[in-house]
Amino acid sequence: MTLLEITGLTVHIGEKKLLDGVDLTLAAGESTGLIGESGSGKSLTALAVLGLLPEGARAEGSVRLDGTELLGLGDRALSRVRGERIAMVFQEPLTALNPLMRVGRQIAEPLRLHRGLSRRQAHAEAVRLAGEVGLPDPGRAVRAFPHQLSGGQRQRVGIAMALACRPALLIADEPTTALDVTVQAEILRLIRDLAAEQGTALLFITHDLAVLAQVVRRVVVLGGGRVLEDGALRDILRAPAHPYTRRLLEVARVESFPAEVAP
User: Fold this and answer.
1) Which residues belong to CATH 3.40.50.300 in the chain?
2) First to last CA, the chain
3) Which residues pair with 11 in a beta bridge?
4) Could you tell me which of 197, 191, 198, 193 has the C-alpha nearest to residue 174?
5) Are strands 86-89 and 169-173 parallel, antiparallel or unpaired?
6) How far is Cα of residue 101 from the mean position of the Cα atoms in its chain?
7) 89 bridge partner residues
8) What is the pLDDT of residues 89-136, one digit of tens each?
9) What CATH number belongs to 1-85+169-263?
10) Are the CB atoms for 262 and 192 separated by under 8 Å?
11) Residue 125 to residues 25, 97, 119, 154, 164: CA-CA distances in angstroms?
12) Which three-class secondary structure state does DSSP give residue 242?
């Protein structure tokens, strides 16, 4: 069953075309990677899905979630979709989190907004979620401010916030770029495993095929605002059809890939 269907998505800023007829589908519960170099249009595609394009940008085409057209949807309707049906984990959690608000309150906020939980219920659920994403001493962790946590712990808070309402679609936009290698591997496993447990579809955005190989089975290659290749990750790793993809493989040093691609 198709969850997300993007058809002919084109984005202009002024006279410049940044996305050029992007087509992408994602089934319910499916994990797919969106990969490309900086400026290829990966994050812009995610922002178009969320209705968060930068000021001055205009989008054409279609973005449908469960059959509902999102392009042109009003702000109030979009705000209900974001957090409840679609959630996002950002690249740098320190800038994504409110520095003046305790992290427990930030995890609890979507629970109160979208699930109608009381303050007490939302706090209890925030503590549970903090434990589920691996924050040490969850009862204490939720009382911390973002600057009191490590980068990896802040990203765990971001994941807890994103998955709090069990969205149908999780978009992870370069979520491990700012983390060291050991923490990066832990966060990748956490995103992959929690999305699978909840039956949440995952659109994982990155420029690194080696990272992608640990999370998804299917990959869509984006270059110059266009889809250049779309298929099973194993097939693309073994026999990339487009020269752009072959360059990505060379940069990624595929000999260092894990022996087993994402389960």
Assistant:
1) 1-85+169-263
2) 21
3) 19, 59
4) 191
5) parallel
6) 23
7) 172
8) 988 877 889 999 999 999 999 899 888 999 999 999 999 999 999 999
9) 3.40.50.300
10) yes
11) 32, 19, 10, 18, 8
12) coil
